[in-house]
Amino acid sequence: MSKFALPRTILITGATGGIGGALAEVYAEPNNVLILQGRNSIRLAELAVICEEKGARVLIRVLDMRNLKELTAWLRMICEQEKVDLVIVNAGVNNNIGLQGAGESWEDVQALIEVNVLAAMATVDAVLPSMRARGEGQIALMSSLAAYFGLPITPSYCASKAALKVYGEALRGWLHSEGIRVNVVMPGYVESKMCRDMPGPKPFLWPAEKAARTIKRGLARNQSRISFPFPLNLGTWFLSVLPAGISEWILRLLNYAG
Asked: Is the bond into 229 cis (omega within 30 degrees of 0)?
């Protein structure tokens, strides 16, 4: 059993995605407050109704995470109005080199980094002052098993998730003494539109609800890394410690080379 109090006010970015929506539903219960951000206004409104029917109080905000000025202003306002216990930095996009290996356009790469890295860091920067002032709080950064070793079919995505992994690990060490928990979440393949749009094999595909419940348990235990599923997490970790030439050969063998 966790020694930490259960979070009652949970903020989730990217709540209209597969994992984000599933996380909102698993945290939706009486006495909980859910603060949900997304770009899809219809899906966000539908999700709010589902979570309210489960007894949660729900606040929603439709905005583009690339608008950092609007994002940070909203987050600071929320932190003044609510005592946010848990922030799940989940918003993210994917990109790939294409079926013919034409490569990623610079515009797509820039947009991906703006969402996956800059907006994620801006989210942390905006919510952290209130947590440090209270001496408590929890931040979960949604990385990926793709952070362990770059997949040739998704270069910028892997780079962005590696950045979040290292950023989260550094924050955890820095903020530990202040009573703030930071966790890095590293999912494998989870059923979602983003996952379906990604080329290449998708072994050990999990439904979003199973992933959300695993993440919730890991956060309650304050696991530094919440990685799944086994054995894919073990395999991707091995890619990072094997000689690079061997890891590249394995990826070509498994048809991940584009």
From this structure: yes
CA-based nearest residue to 86, from 194, 2, 190, 187:
2
Count Cβ atoms below 10 Å from residue 71 Cβ, excluding itself: 22
Write the CA distances from 130 to 65, 82, 180, 193, 213, integer angstroms.
Answer: 21, 10, 11, 34, 27
Global pTM reads 0.94
Q: What is the rounded CA–CA span in Å between residue 92 and residue 36?
A: 14
Q: Are 164 and 120 a contacting pair, CB within 8 Å? A: yes
Tell how strand 86-89 and strand 9-12 pair up: parallel
| DSSP code for 104 | -
Asked if 147 and 158 touch (Cβ cutoff 8 Å), the reply is yes
Task: Express each pLDDT in 44-72 by its tens digit.
Answer: 999 999 999 999 999 999 999 999 999 99
The set of catalytic residues is 157
Instruction: Flag whether pLDDT at 8 surpasses 70.
Output: yes
pLDDT of residue 195: 73
- Give the pLDDT score at 48: 98
CA distances from 142 to 11, 93, 146 (A): 13, 11, 11
Q: Which domains does the chain have, with CATH numbers?
A: 9-253 (3.40.50.720)
> Which letter, b or e, does each residue of 103-114 get, where b requires 16 or more Cβ atoms within 10 Å of its Cβ?
ebeeeebeebbb
Strand order in the sheet with 137-142: 57-62, 33-38, 9-12, 86-89, 137-142, 180-187, 225-228
Q: Tell me the torsion sign for CA atoms 218, 14, 87, 126.
A: positive
